[in-house]
Amino acid sequence: MAIFDTRSLGRTAVLAAGVGGAVMALALASPSAAGAADLTCTGPAGSTAEVAEDGTACGVRTDDVSTALARAYDAVAFARAEVRGSAFGLAHSGGVAAAETSAGHVGAVSVGQDSVSIVSTDPGAIAFALSLTRGQTFVGTTAEGVRCDAGAGVAVNFSTGQMCISDGSSVPSQPS
């Protein structure tokens, strides 16, 4: 049985959140390539919105008491939230990001060609996944855990302490 220091987990979570924030800022501020679509999907509570243009797509779905935001730039992003939940999906440069929750707060960010980030957790969870080029990250239910495969990425379920980090060649992870 592996034992890990909760202070180390906290520091790693803060680092992961900082890296995620930096990547999101870079993705939102990076210059646009000619012809690539930049789409944002959002809407009032209780709505569904889907937009597709030139190989880029985004979609959101919420109930009457939740919020969701999806932003895609030359990529695909989706977010779904219900039961006072909030979700965001951000995809850039060929990535795919999808986040869904019931009563939780989740986010998925995917930056770079063939990157995939998926978050679909137990109700009430707080979770985040980030994938860079060719990275594949997943945060699922407590039983499904977290996964980091292929390229660089990080996946964290803050509610359960499950997490993984990949540099693209090795995958150190916290025990489930």
Q: How would you describe what is shown here?
A:
- This protein has one helix at 6-29, and strands at residues 38-41, 48-53, 56-62, 67-73, 76-82, 86-92, 96-102, 105-111, 116-120, 126-131, 135-139, 146-150, 152-157, 162-167.
- With 176 residues, it is mainly beta.
- Strands 1-4-6-8-10-13-14 form a seven-stranded mixed β-sheet, with helices on one face. The protein has a seven-stranded mixed β-sheet with strand order 2-3-5-7-9-11-12, with no helix packed on it.
- Residues 1-33 have low confidence and may be disordered.
What would the keywords be for this entry?
single chain, 176 residues, mainly beta, seven-stranded mixed sheet, 14% helix, 48% strand, disordered N terminus
Largest sheet: 7 strands, mixed
Instruction: Indicate the structural class.
Output: mainly beta
Element string (H = helix, E = strand): HEEEEEEEEEEEEEE
- Gyration radius, to the nearest Å? 15 Å
Q: Percent of residues in beta strands?
A: over 45%
Quaternary structure classification: single chain
Number of helices: 1
Residue stretches low in confidence (pLDDT < 50, at least 5 long) are 1-33
What is the tally of beta strands?
14
Q: What is the residue-mean pLDDT, rounded to a whole number?
A: 84
